[in-house]
Every structure is written in structure tokens, then in C-alpha cells.
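Example 3.2
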Amino acid sequence: MNAAAEITFDHVTKRYAGRDAAALDDLSLEIPAGAFCILVGPSGGGKTTALKMVNRLIPFDSGDILIDGRSVRDIPVVELRREIGYVIQQVGLFPHMTVGENIGTVPRLLGWPKAKIRARCGELIDLVGLEQSDLKRYPAQLSGGQRQRVGLARALAADPPLLLMDEPFGALDPITRFRLQTEMRRLHREVGKTVIFVTHDIDEAIQLGDRIAILREGGVLAQYDTPDAILAQPADDFVAKFIGEDRALRRLALKRLSDVKLSPTNGADQQPRVSIETTVRNAVSLLLETKTDHLLVEDDNGQVVGAFRFSDAGALL
């Protein structure tokens, strides 16, 4: 497999015995290599079913799932799962193993030399924002957020081209969840893997994904597009209701001041200042809080590069 994998769902259907409705009904979509694709929707939409069919934890009845053009049915199941990172809500760390031993699980199964495994564990513990000393600790000695970071490091250990993530942050408190979402966005930029991420939270989907697949009950694909396109043009009433009424504000949260054509400052230097990496939504909020008509925008070096006004936000929409 390549550094990042292209995933294709080709008319995939799954029905469970004793149920009239399909769990997944004729799902077709293509996930480009390196994309962060979110599967989102209400309960009964088939999100987790679709995810688990990629690594054959659940068989499908018809259609096919392709990884870089190769059917998952043609890949030996052990080989398939060792080449896919898998992160779940409960993390699933081995309690009798240290953090380092947990992270090195798949590399050990693949026969990596011990020195290479130690080096990879050290690299990954830094990447997910933990301390080198944590490698010798046991899962019971870690917080929920720390355990989730270890689970992510373990999933990345053998450098797989694809990560499957099944509501990994759902059991965490809001503050820890937000921090891990931010870290996940950074990690995705750095490691460049294809990610398929299941959530029922549309805000999480918008924050993390560059592609979103919204599934309705019965496993039917309602819309598949970029977050901005879905917010701008919901496919139907179901999608519009699912993403909520404040679509304009959510679109502004996708943009940063670096995306805005800023206005001249006209010599003003007493206005509130914000970083050019501030989201447009947060900048609008600050305008309302400070009751001012514009903000001064600074670059990474603290130099003012322009002014941001309400009209600039409207132009983005």
C-alpha cells in the first residue's frame, strides 16, 4: 500500500437477519488518498457498520470496498488489519503492558527489530503530545485523554496508509475532547494518512473533516461533500435539519482571517488585536464583545497586516 490509501465504496449493501431495513443501503463514495472523511448521522445510519466493513470486522452482502483499487475481500484478513490503524472509543489498551509495549504491538507482530520499535515508540509519543517517561507507565496510571493519545499512537505505529476511528473522543469531557480534536487536525497535517472517522456530532465533523458523508436512517447516503459545500447548500430538508439552523456561523468557523481580504488599517492602532490564524467566527464574536467596528490582524511576527470588519465576514458567505 501507499503512504495514504484511496478508499472506494462501490454500491455496498448490508442487511442483518431479522431486520426489514438495511443497515447500509447501496453506499457509493470515493475517499481520496490523504483525505479526512467523516461519517456522520443519526443512530441507525450505518456509520459504524460502514467503518467496520473496511477492515472486514463486519462482512457486506453485495457491492465492494476497494483500497487503492484492490478489493478488501482479496486481501488476507490478517494482512489487511495490520495495514490499517484502528482507534475506538474505549481505546482497548492492554492493561498488563506498558504504554511503550502497547504502542509497539503491531511492529512486534511484523517482526521489527527491537531498536526500531523503541525508536518508533519514542517518535510517536512525542507526536501525540505525551512525555517520553510515559512509555514506562501502565494504562491505569493515565487519564482518559492520555489513554486515547496512546491508542492513536498504537494505531500509527506500523505507519499504515489508513486510519479507522470509531467515535474515539465520544467518552471524553468537552475540554479534553476539544484538545484532542485540535491535536488530531495537526496530526493529520503531519502524517498525511487517509482517515475515516465516525461521529454523531456534526460540530466535530465540521471541525475535523475535509469530506463529510451524512447518512440517514436505513444506511442511505444523504450527502457527500466538503463541509463548506454542505453548509452552503444542504441536499434536502433532512440534511438541513441535521446540521442545524446556524449554518452561516458554522461556515465562518471553517475560515481563518488568513482567508479574508483584509481592509486597510487607516493608521488606527488602538483597536483589539487578533492573530491571522483566528477563525472568522471567533473574530466576529470578538467584534460583538468589544462593540468595535474592526479588529487589527497580526501575522506570526506580531506585525499588523490589515483590519477585519463585519463586511469582510459577509463577503465570505
